[in-house]
Amino acid sequence: MLVRRALQVIVAVSVILAGAVGGGVATAEDRSRAEDARPQGGRQTLYYNHAYGVLDRETADAIEHSEYLREFANFQVRTTTGSDGRTWTGRYLLGRETYLELFGVGDLPGQDGEFGAGGMGVSVERDGRLAQVIDRLRDLGITDPVEYKQTRDFGDGVPVPWFDAVFTTGEYDAFGAWGMEYRPEYFADPRGKTEPPNYPGDVGRERYLNDDYRDHLMRDITSVRLGVTARDLANTVPLLRAGGFKLRSTEGGGVVARGGGTVLRFDAVPRAEAGLKQVGMSLNRPVKEPHEERIGNSTLTVGPDAGAVWRFDGTA
Fold this sequence. Notes:
Blueprint: H1 3-18, H2 28-37, E1 47-55, H3 57-64, H4 67-72, E2 74-81, E3 87-94, E4 99-104, E5 118-123, H5 129-139, E6 146-152, E7 160-167, E8 175-182, H6 184-188, H7 205-208, E9 218-228, H8 230-242, E10 246-249, E11 255-258, E12 263-268, E13 275-287, E14 291-294, E15 298-302, E16 305-312
Parallel strand pairs: 1-4, 5-8, 9-12
Antiparallel strand pairs: 1-5, 2-3, 3-4, 6-7, 7-8, 9-13, 10-11, 11-12, 13-16, 14-15, 15-16
Helix pairs in contact: 5-8
């Protein structure tokens, strides 16, 4: 999405004025209670919400017109209008709590629309928790985190506050991650078609997404693997740490982040090798015989059992 694009504008204006594996088991309420029961220092407050990647044109077009994806997942192609009238058209696979957003080269402006660009949102489940994340970022040495408020226009010209976001920096090569907290105004607006709260202060992912996933095979995103530059990874790690993810270094300078049902793997690579590499998904029911679907320069393998893996091997 264009959260990062809006961030670029904010940072630029600020400079001028001054002279940026396995999910769906525990319920949102279970996690919220667990957060309250853990010690403050080790509590997880951020959870994988969604990731996006910019794919080669052939693959993006094949995804957009895939009949199989429309059967496999709650799949949508839609245009969204955000703050200041900025729009983007994405291809979405929506699960119970998590989702995936895909673009083709040139679908987004500037460097955000280049092959291999991407981003990721990690969100809180209870209102007020993003402020705690921001405090932790400062404790980790991010003295000036960049805060941003996103709105959404449903096409009638009346924007509604959508979510608050925080970035560790406004500078990036190809990938950026942000912490986010959905706004109560969004949940109160009937145009959002969101669900009632599961507990007091519920601003969680399950409430945000509808239940149409039940009519398809895909349930949730359980793993994401991305190639990112060393600088982009260094900017991402403090946010994950502040959100309570458990981090492990990998050979070659990468990082694996665990927590909340989705495993995130970041491989440190040159910019030319950056991009979305692989996505794992849980299914609503087991599949006895695996199915392999070739979609552009990508391969979606569904099953056996209750999992699927989507591998991307496209080129610019």
